[in-house]
Amino acid sequence: MYNLSTYSSSQLELDITSYIKPLEVHKVLSAYEMAEHVHQFQIRNDNSPYFYHCARVCKIVVKELSIFDPDLLIAALTHDILEDSKNLTHEVLTYNFGAYAAYIVQVLTKDLQKQTLDPDTVEKEHIQLLKQSTTDCLIIKLAARLDNFRCLDFNLKKNPLTYINKTTDLYLPLADASKNEHLFVLASEIRKERNKFLG
Description:
Blueprint: H1 9-16, H2 22-38, H3 50-64, H4 70-78, H5 81-84, H6 90-97, H7 99-108, H8 112-117, H9 119-132, H10 135-149, H11 160-176, H12 181-198
Helix pairs in contact: 1-2, 2-4, 3-4, 3-10, 4-7, 6-7, 7-10, 10-11, 10-12, 11-12
């Protein structure tokens, strides 16, 4: 089943070694280990290990988008890390992986406490932030959304239609307004998954 699939560190290493320098490969694998450690006790609503999601987002970036930029791979693996760790900070990510990867993760990090109280406001603020941020932030965001769409059949979301509608109404227009080929691919795949789920 898709939701129980992952992307092993050995396969990731094999896939990227020909494209990036050894030191960068090491950084990406370090990000893999850090994210795996942070999420190790987390289980998603579909009863899958949370880290599988992070690994699959990285797999989408590598396998489906053919992106081998170390910053994007690191951000794909660690995109939820600041939300789910009490100890890790933006500064720690910057120290370990560089300013740009940490910036992407920071942009993708929501205030979960505030989101519980006022989800619509947080969502709108997040959209505005993405509009003002680099395209790379939206690439990782939509790759994560695509992975979530592929898990909707496994009861990942309590309100899947709400998730689908928010993605369609708020996030896909950002991709459609861009000329970026990677965003075009992601938006197209998200629409395919939406149509599958809706029948």
